Amino acid sequence: MKNNLSISVPKLIKGIVNGEIPALSKAISLVESKLPIHQKWAQELEVAFSKENPNTIRVGISGVPGVGKSTLIEALGMYLVEKGLRLAVLTIDPSSQQSGGSILGDKTRMDQLAAHKSAYIRTTAAASTLGGVAQNTRSSILFCEAAGFDVIIVETVGVGQNELEVHEMVDALLLLQLPGAGDEIQGIKRGLLEVADALLINKADGAQAPLAKKAQQYFKASVHGFRPRKNGWEPPVLLASAIENRGVKEVWQSIEYFIRLQKKHGDFELKRTAQKILGLHRLVCQRLEASFYADKKVQNEIPDIKRQLTNGTLSISKAAEILIDGFRNSHKKSL
């Protein structure tokens, strides 16, 4: 995004509230930008839209690459917009190591949904974030809700265990699986299975149908063995074929039922509040880390520290202590 000094934050706020897509896209670009002036404007927008909408539904969709996340999202998305709902899809693409930009470009994979007037698709590069979601996804969700979208879907990059972070910013997490039995075969870690609110065996069609049934039984047994949740919810294991548009309606019905149960027991609001605290913690860590590595004293010491580590004359813990002490001392002098 170009450093456009003519940007008016109040005008952007008004545009977002009026549901104007250009204003929404510009706001998301601001939170993604690393330019100081853009970050300042982004913070003003975040303050304006810090109050959450309890009537929206945030859904995370995760799973290994090739499981059919984008195909399912398009089928589910078309079902939702045809029901009269407004849908925003925030897709997190793997990043190019050279450019830092997204590789796949989900609008090209959801052409029918992208063309619908009630849908908005935004692709963001995952960059250096390890959690399967982009660093500023939380703000993007709030902006989309302020723009009047009823449902926000967050599609993650599909890297397994590291995607646990998406659970910290959605109301329901749907984990997609391929036909076949055994999470060890699919590279899905137990931690992700435990936090999923529903599991879906996708591509349950044709010759894959018997394998999908077998996988369904396997994961039902796995889920049943987890510690029961306080509200009595046991994540369902569903079957669907996004290509044949079968099982899509049942997926949404399951999500809606889960949200109703959460609200009935008071867990919905508690979860969103806890997510804010977790978001604060992560943001503080991110900004402290960025400040640490931008510090001149740290930058000057790192080459020598690396040499000593390579030569075996310095331990990792001592190296960290030296760098942190140097960082603290440089900031004490500036006070």
Described by the principal axes of the CA atoms, the overall outline is globular
Q: How many domains would you count in the coordinates?
A: 3
Biggest pleated-sheet summary:
7 strands, parallel
β-strand percent reads 5-15%
> Whole-number radius of gyration?
22 Å
Mean pLDDT: 86
Query: Total helix count?
Result: 13
**Gap from first CA to last CA:** 34 Å
Number of strands: 7
CATH architectural name of the largest domain? 3-Layer(aba) Sandwich
Question: CATH superfamily name of the largest domain?
Answer: P-loop containing nucleotide triphosphate hydrolases
Give the strand line-up of the largest sheet.
3-2-4-1-5-6-7
- CATH T-level topology of the largest domain: Rossmann fold
Query: Roughly how much helix do the residues carry, as a percent range?
Result: 40-55%
List keywords for this structure.
single chain, 335 residues, seven-stranded parallel sheet, 11% strand, 13 helices, Rossmann fold, Single alpha-helices involved in coiled-coils or other helix-helix interfaces
How do the helices and strands line up, and which of them pair or pack?
Layout: H1 9-17, H2 21-32, H3 36-48, E1 57-62, H4 69-82, E2 87-93, H5 111-114, E3 119-125, H6 137-146, E4 151-155, E5 172-177, H7 183-186, H8 190-195, E6 198-201, H9 209-224, E7 237-239, H10 248-264, H11 267-294, H12 296-311, H13 316-334
Parallel strand pairs: 1-4, 1-5, 2-3, 2-4, 5-6, 6-7
Helix pairs in contact: 1-2, 2-3, 2-6, 4-10, 12-13
